[in-house]
Automatic annotation (TrEMBL):
<dbReference type="GO" id="GO:0016887">
    <property type="term" value="F:ATP hydrolysis activity"/>
</dbReference>
<dbReference type="GO" id="GO:0016020">
    <property type="term" value="C:membrane"/>
</dbReference>
<keyword id="KW-0813">Transport</keyword>
<dbReference type="InterPro" id="IPR003593">
    <property type="entry name" value="AAA+_ATPase"/>
</dbReference>
<dbReference type="Pfam" id="PF00005">
    <property type="entry name" value="ABC_tran"/>
</dbReference>
<dbReference type="InterPro" id="IPR017871">
    <property type="entry name" value="ABC_transporter-like_CS"/>
</dbReference>
<dbReference type="InterPro" id="IPR003439">
    <property type="entry name" value="ABC_transporter-like_ATP-bd"/>
</dbReference>
<feature type="region of interest" description="Disordered">
    <location>
        <begin position="257"/>
        <end position="293"/>
    </location>
</feature>
<dbReference type="InterPro" id="IPR015860">
    <property type="entry name" value="ABC_transpr_TagH-like"/>
</dbReference>
<comment type="similarity">
    <text>Belongs to the ABC transporter superfamily.</text>
</comment>
<dbReference type="InterPro" id="IPR027417">
    <property type="entry name" value="P-loop_NTPase"/>
</dbReference>
<protein>
    <submittedName>
        <fullName>Teichoic acid ABC transporter ATP-binding protein</fullName>
    </submittedName>
</protein>
<dbReference type="GO" id="GO:0140359">
    <property type="term" value="F:ABC-type transporter activity"/>
</dbReference>
<dbReference type="GO" id="GO:0005524">
    <property type="term" value="F:ATP binding"/>
</dbReference>
<feature type="domain" description="ABC transporter">
    <location>
        <begin position="41"/>
        <end position="264"/>
    </location>
</feature>
<keyword id="KW-0067">ATP-binding</keyword>
<keyword id="KW-0547">Nucleotide-binding</keyword>
Length: 293
């Protein structure tokens, strides 16, 4: 009889992935535009001489994600979480190694590009088309998307340009558009950290639905509670290296010990207070006590 792991369908395979950024040094921008263009054309030969610094954002990361999993990506600031997510989405090249995907990854982040001068209504249609939905599908799901986002709870904001939205409203609408479609691989970057607790609960429930429809979800978040509520597996990146990969509670326990997360530690029980000593009875003739006649 085949082992249960044989029935797992891999959706993302990262094999020894290195991602490197190149940052121009402060002294490399002097001179004419022609000289600058020549430096760009000769970049590979002159990186060191022109002051270009290599930043190794992700180092030799390998993992396999399977259909139906929700995987959290955690780590301190600058650990490479969002960079790895963009590489899985095909938006960043890898320096070494390979990333293989089964199906089309869809990246959803709080900075996902929508048209700020267009109304929320128009952005719902354009965002749906960009994800491959038909016009009929968008029309059928339009009201569901608007209701899910909560944009109109305090007014008819869906008919206003997105530049009039707060950052939280815009992020909620982006998530609602992306969540309206079932994805092969959905990559969520901090979207659940935006909005009130009611919206976060709706988002977490929707991610669980996406998993049931045979999708794979990656969630980057600094909110450990969102990771606990949503993910059954966690990848912990630190300084670009994969430090731990395993069940959510096991990895978060080690991560919280590493960061000294006070919120994750149980609060000490209050010490029992000593019983108050009974107050002595007022002496006869004391203030406010009449003497017997």
């Amino acid at each position: 009889m085949a082992d249960s792991t044989d029935r797992k369908v891999p959706t993302v395979v990262a094999d020894g992935v290195d991602i490197v950024y190149r940052v121009n040094g402060t002294g490399a921008g002097r001179g004419s535009a022609t000289a600058a263009l020549n430096r760009i054309l000769r970049r590979k030969q002159t990186e060191k001489a022109s002051g270009v610094r290599r930043v190794h954002a992700v180092r030799n990361v390998s993992f396999v994600a399977y259909r139906g999993e929700a995987i959290g990506l955690i780590g301190t600031n600058g650990s490479g979480k969002s960079t790895l997510l963009k590489a899985v989405a095909g938006l960043l090249p890898v320096e070494n190694g390979r990333i293989y995907t089964d199906g089309q990854p869809s990246l959803l982040g709080v900075n996902a590009a929508l048209m700020s001068d267009l109304t929320g209504e128009r952005n719902v249609h354009l965002g749906g088309l960009a994800m491959g939905m038909s016009r009929d599908e968008i029309k059928a799901r339009y009201q569901e998307i608007v209701d899910f986002s909560g944009i109109n709870e305090k007014g008819d904001f869906i008919t206003l340009p997105m530049r009039t939205y707060s950052s939280g409203m815009a992020a909620r609408l982006r998530f609602s558009i992306a969540a309206a479609k079932d994805h092969d691989v959905l990559l969520v970057d901090e979207a659940l950290a935006t909005g009130d607790r009611s919206f976060q609960k709706r988002s977490e429930a929707r991610i669980r639905e996406l998993r049931k429809h045979a999708g794979t979800v990656f969630l980057v978040s600094h909110n450990n509670k969102s990771i606990r509520d949503t993910c059954d597996r966690v990848l912990w990146l630190e300084r670009g290296e994969l430090r731990m990969d395993g069940p959510t509670e096991e990895v978060l326990k080690e991560y919280e010990a590493f960061t000294g997360d006070k919120a994750a530690k149980p609060k000490p029980k209050p010490k029992p207070q000593a019983a108050a000593a009974p107050k002595p009875a007022p002496a006869p003739g004391g203030a406010g006590v009449p003497l017997p006649s």
